[in-house]
Design goal:
Low-confidence stretches: none
Strand content: 15-25%
Number of helices: 6
CATH class: Alpha Beta
Helix content: 25-40%
CATH architecture: 3-Layer(aba) Sandwich
Radius of gyration: 17 Å
CATH superfamily: Peptidyl-tRNA hydrolase
Length: 213
């Protein structure tokens, strides 16, 4: 009689990274929703973020839900070089890439929709391209936060995509943003309590709708 192998341990984040661009010019833009998530988590979990030159980012560590040790990072390298900052933290704390959860904006998802995955490609996102290059693998969890896509003819698509992601949320979207941040926080708290797979099963089909007024 052979022994059944034990089930794999759930994937638990040890470092949560939000992608964005530094500077007041980019504050409140759709492309910086990853930064907004980290700021919200830092407030909720009472983790102080301070600039760390070694990590090229704003960094903090403390206790998340159920007293889990957690680290938060906002790379200050600009989006295209986000992986440099992540790599510095991973090397310093000797973390496995699988314990790094990256949060970023996604035009392919409507506003109010999120998608948690254990691995995958960059999907054209420059911050994720840098993350994959510097971590040396695609096998790390990520949470995509929907920012919707610009309504434009195909000929204008590329130009409008840039102005869309670097633009600020509309009035209706801005009203929904606090709810989105709360939803993301719930997802991350579940990931820390019961693992990313459990959070995926519970939250990947959730959706928030902007009000029409």
């Amino acid at each position: 009689m052979t022994d059944a192998s034990p089930p794999p341990l759930p994937v638990m984040p040890q470092l949560i990274v939000g992608l964005g661009n530094p500077g007041s010019k980019y504050e409140q833009t759709r492309h910086n929703v990853g930064f907004a998530v980290i700021d919200a988590l830092a407030r909720s979990w009472q983790i102080s973020l301070t600039e760390n030159r070694k990590f090229q980012g704003l960094f903090g560590e403390g206790l998340g839900p159920q007293a889990h040790k957690i680290r938060l990072l906002k790379p200050l390298t600009f989006m295209n070089a986000s992986g440099q900052s992540m790599r510095a933290v991973v090397d310093w704390f000797k973390l496995e890439p699988q314990s790094v959860l990256v949060i970023y904006d996604d035009m392919d998802l409507p506003i109010g929709k999120i998608r948690l995955r254990l691995s995958g490609s960059a999907g054209g996102h420059n911050g994720m391209k840098s993350a994959i290059a510097h971590l040396g693998t695609q096998n790390f969890p990520r949470l995509r936060v929907g920012i919707g896509s610009p309504k434009s003819p195909v000929s204008q698509a590329e130009k409008d995509a840039i102005s869309h992601v670097l633009g600020q949320f509309s009035v209706a979207e801005s009203k929904l943003l606090p709810e989105i941040l709360r939803l993301v926080e719930e997802v991350l708290e579940m990931s820390l309590k019961q693992g990313i797979e459990k959070a995926m099963s519970l939250y990947n089909n959730r959706s928030l709708e902007p009000s029409q007024d």
